Amino acid sequence: MFNTTLCYVLRGNEVLMLHRIKKKNDVNQDKWIGIGGKFEGDESPDECLLREAKEETGLTLTSWKCRGVITFLTNGPWDGEHMYLFTADDFEGELTECPEGELKWVSREFLDQLPKWEGDQIFLDLLWQDAPFFLLKLRYDEDKLVEAVLDGKKIR
Questions:
Q1: 3-class DSSP state of 65
Q2: Cβ(7)–Cβ(86) under 8 Å?
Q3: Among 55, 61, 82, 132, which residue's beta carbon has the most beta carbons within 10 A?
Q4: Domain of 7, in residue numbers
Q5: Which residues contact 153 (CB under 8 A, 6 or more apart)?
Q6: Is the pTM higher than 0.70?
Q7: Which helix (H) or strand (E) holds 35?
Q8: Are the beta carbons of 70 and 134 closer than 8 angstroms?
Q9: What is the CATH number of the domain that holds 75?
Q10: Could you read off the pLDDT tens digit of each residue along the chain, which spans 156 residues?
């Protein structure tokens, strides 16, 4: 298990999304995800968030909130992870090119139509409903979601 962050940067009704199309052997290939990545050294979740946001977007986040922790389990392409899920609603700077894919501002409505991990829709719905802090466990068999547990209750 390793620790990661994922952040959805908000601008009005738009969300900054990363279309993962540039990285070789990418478990997220062709999917649309938020920004973020693995912890380095002794980083805290917010330190990782700020570093990853700057590296991937060129933006300096100035207002963010941790919304939940997601545990991913799989027998597939990765060993599992604990992901700290954030939203950010203020930032400074200008977007730069991302080495992992193409960054694009998309409307929340259009986001539902983009290819993403099946479990992502569960936590995106929670974010858009402004749910209180949550714990979510997502179990995948390869790339198929086989179990989802929200705050200790099986929802799938």
A1: strand
A2: yes
A3: 61
A4: 2-154
A5: none
A6: yes
A7: strand 35-38
A8: no
A9: 3.90.79.10
A10: 899 999 999 999 999 999 877 666 656 657 899 999 999 999 999 999 999 999 999 999 999 999 999 999 987 656 789 999 999 999 999 999 998 899 999 999 898 889 898 999 999 999 999 999 999 999 998 889 999 999 999 998
